[in-house]
Structures are given as structure tokens and as C-alpha cells.
Specification:
- This protein is an alpha+beta fold.
- It has one domain (8-46, 54-97).
- 14% of the residues lie in helices and 33% in strands.
- The protein contains 1 helix and 5 strands, in the order αβββββ.
- Strands 4-3-2-1-5 form a 5-stranded antiparallel β-sheet, with helices on one face.
- A hairpin with a 5-residue loop joins β3 and β4.
- The two termini are 21 Å apart.
Amino acid sequence: MSIDPQLEPFVSQARDDLARRLEIDKAEITVIDAGFVTWPNSALGCPEPDMMYTQALVPGYRIRLRADGALHHYHGAEGRPPSHCPTDRVTDPAAESAGRKDVT
């Protein structure tokens, strides 16, 4: 799989974080996909219960990793490092984007 060079540092940060969380070697983590998306609001696809979010389209990215037989989600936007999103809180982006976005 090819990862856009602009996303490579975020993928590396996500892998480092997941390796720490699971106490495993980074080599045990597979990148399923990493791409640019548009989030429907400032929750970036990971809303917390009882929170309100600005309803505006937010250009960002989504990274999905597999480790220990489970899928792990990381979301981010506009210069923000990737943030782990528990599976029970993951929501879909408004749209996937084929083009580069300014997320650095």
C-alpha cells in the first residue's frame, strides 16, 4: 500500500502510540489504510458522549491499523497529531478525498 508522503509522519506517530498502548513491537502492527478525509464536524469522527461539536466540514485524515487481531482507528486534522479513537466511538467521515489536503 502506498501512503501519501504528507501522511507518513502521522502514520508513524499512530504506530508508535499503538505499540505503547498494546505493549508490542511496531513490527506487529499492520497499516490497513491511511488517507485524507473530510470530517463532518470538529469531533473528527470520534465524538465523546455528552459533548457538542462545531458543525463544519473539517479537512483531515484517517489511519487504520491492525494489531492483536483488532482494528485500531486514529483520526486527525490540520496539524494535529493522530488521536486514537476507541472502536465504539468511531463515526464515518463526510467524504474521502483523493487529493492532498493541508494537514501539516
